[in-house]
Amino acid sequence: MTTTQPGVVFVTGASSGFGAAVTRRFAAAGARVVISARRADRLRDLAAELGPRVLPLTLDVRDLAAVNAVVNGLPAEYAQVDVLVNNAGLALGLGPAQTAGIDDWDRMIDTNCKGLVYCTRAILPGMVARRRGHVINLGSVAGTYPYPGGNVYGGTKAFVHQFSLNLRSDLHGTGVRVTCVEPGMADTEFSSVRFAGDKAAADAVYAGMQPMTADDIADAIYWAATRPAHVNVNTIELMATAQSFAPFQVARDG
């Protein structure tokens, strides 16, 4: 079995969490990695750690013009992207829809949906022209299984799942692959962001259980990207062993 060995990988949201772990995993395998995020200092530190084959580029995926400028301006040795990892995303708040902040909703939609679409649209034509490539989108189990307070975050991840399936249909016959990776509970900065830096609230999410790690998710992404070219992994859903499913809620009178 001949596995695929990506030459160039483009990772969004690479400054921490899944994105940083994915960068380390592909860099260790010898790939050139374009790392993008808003936090330039963290990108520089990661590039310094991993060496000259990692190219740090400051980017806010919500800015369409900036996305196009970055992709069109890639140096020749990074221009032919083999794997796009659409990792940039976030959850904000855990309140019910009737009290949630519209600004938080806008930011989640702009990052998790529009930012992912912008990066995909910018990089995809080159993949199709070369008849090879792989788009890997970070979804979530929240896109399948609802929970109180998940409202717009879960909706954005349902979008990511369906968009990934529709990409597969559009790309039929091109040789370009698409995978949606949908994690459950993983201990990264995700909860700190969700709770606006409230460390106690973030830590409580994982209290008394063993969540997945960023490296666990990076390993799944690397595995999908290195399958033989004739194999497309459509969806990977993974959870911590300690996490599963609950009964339906029932509101009762009295």
What is the structure about, briefly put?
The protein is built from 8 helices and 7 strands, in the order E-H-E-H-E-H-E-H-E-H-E-H-H-H-E.
Explained architecture:
This protein is an alpha/beta fold. The protein has a single domain, classed as NAD(P)-binding Rossmann-like Domain (Rossmann fold, 3-Layer(aba) Sandwich), CATH 3.40.50. It contains eight helices and seven strands. The protein has a seven-stranded parallel β-sheet, sandwiched between helices. Helix 1 links the parallel strand 1 (8-12) and strand 2 (32-37). Helix 3 packs parallel to helix 4 (102-130). The chain is globular, with a radius of gyration of 18 Å. The model has no long low-confidence stretch (mean pLDDT 95).
What count of structural domains?
A: 1
What would the average pLDDT be, to the nearest integer? 95
* Strand composition percent: 5-15%
CATH fold descriptor: Rossmann fold
The Cα radius of gyration reads: 18 Å
Any idea what the CATH superfamily is called? NAD(P)-binding Rossmann-like Domain
Measured distance between first and last alpha carbons: 63 Å
The total count of helices amounts to: 8
Question: Could you outline the blueprint of secondary structure elements for this entry?
Answer:
Blueprint: E1 8-12, H1 17-28, E2 32-37, H2 40-50, E3 54-58, H3 64-72, E4 83-86, H4 102-130, E5 133-138, H5 151-170, E6 176-183, H6 190-194, H7 199-205, H8 214-225, E7 235-238
Helix pairs in contact: 1-8, 3-4, 4-5
